[in-house]
Amino acid sequence: MADFGYFSQKIGDSIDRILCESFEKRDYKMPKGRYISFCFDDFPKSAAELAAPMLESRGWRGTWYVAGGFLGKTEPHYGQMFDDGDLEKLKQNGHDFGCHTFDHIDCRDASPELIQAQCRKNMEFLTERGITDVASFAYPFGSVNLSAKRVMAPAAMALRGVKPGLNRGTVDLSMLKACGLQTDNGGIARAMSDLEALKRSDGWLIIFTHDIGPKPSPWGATQSDYSQILQAVEASDIEVVTVGDMVSRLREGAQTPTHAEAA
Ligand SMILES: [Zn+2]
After folding, report:
1. 146 alpha carbon to ligand 1 midpoint, in Å?
2. Whole-number pLDDT of residue 9
3. What secondary structure, in 3-state letters, does 196-247 show?
4. How far is CA 20 from CA 24, 145, 158, in A?
5. In angstroms, what is the span from residue 3 Cα to ligand 1's centroid?
6. Do 119 and 101 contact (CB within 8 A), yes or no?
7. Which of 43, 139, 149, 193 is deepest in the core (most CB within 10 A)?
8. Ion ligand 1: residues, Cβ under 5 Å
């Protein structure tokens, strides 16, 4: 017998996706050129210790989506999470920070009030640590529906989902595409193929991952895989930018911002 629960879930997901991509948009025109951003979500200590130096040694910086509730914790998949020392070091070294929900809640299951309270709490957490210049927010699990997008769209921050692909042409700052290195998303091969697409035409590729190490979680990457991406970028004419940098450029270059940001 057909699994109608599964089908209705799939249909529901598709409707959510179409609604999310069609409404509450903040459209900006991409400048000419090829750009890439490297992001770390949540974030595990291994990313700060192993990946940050790989970026820094090339003169690059990343964007770190902090969920304050993970501070000092040990997670089953990721191991040790960031601590205040990691945050301070990244800040000192000029990295960019993004916001997540404080307790990493799924925005699709949360009321508008709870999403707002979670963002507020996370921003307070960052502000207490001297991090005030936060230009973007990533939906935990990439999970978003129109209601959550509507709650977040008036925020000044750009919003990042997890739909893979290049941001090119006109981009929706309330639904930036991003390529995860997790295994269920094609892992490194997917990222390398997006990178090849970027070499062929202008756009902005956002790559995100979580832990880095010899035995990463399904949502992380090994050092050698990560290094493979960095080397490919290094050998290209792609410019590495933080998400914060690119958001500033989009806003500065905007002739006529639309919707919420026109006000
Ligand atoms: Zn996350």
Report:
1. 19
2. 53
3. HHHHHCCEEEEEEECCECCCCCCCCECHHHHHHHHHHHHCCCCEECCHHHHH
4. 8, 6, 15
5. 30
6. yes
7. 43
8. 41-42, 140
- Rounded to 10 deg, the angle between the 187-200 and 223-234 helix axes is 10
Q: What CATH architecture does domain 25-262 belong to?
A: Alpha-Beta Barrel (3.20)
Q: Cα(100) to centroid of ligand 1, in Å?
A: 7
**Per-residue pLDDT reduced to its tens digit, 1-53:** 445 555 555 555 666 777 677 777 889 999 999 999 999 999 999 999 999 99
Q: Cα of 230 to ligand 1 centre, how many Å? A: 22
* Predicted pLDDT at 263: 38
**How close is the Cα of 188 to the center of ligand 1, in Å?**
19
- The answer to whether residues 52 and 90 touch, using CB atoms and an 8 Å cutoff, is yes
Cα separation, 129 vs 127, whole angstroms: 5
Amino acid at residue number 203: G
CA 138–ligand 1 middle distance (angstroms): 7
- Residues 244 and 96: beta-carbon distance below 8 Å: yes
Domain chopping of the chain, boundaries: 25-262
User: Which regions in the chain score pLDDT beneath 70?
Assistant: 1-15, 19, 162, 255-263
215 CB-near residues (< 8 Å, 6+ apart)? none
Which residue, 133, 138, 132, 178, is CA-closest to 158?
A: 138
Q: How far is the CA of 101 from the centre of ligand 1 (A)?
A: 8
Q: How far is the CA of 256 from the centre of ligand 1 (A)?
A: 32
The predicted structure's pLDDT at residue 253: 86
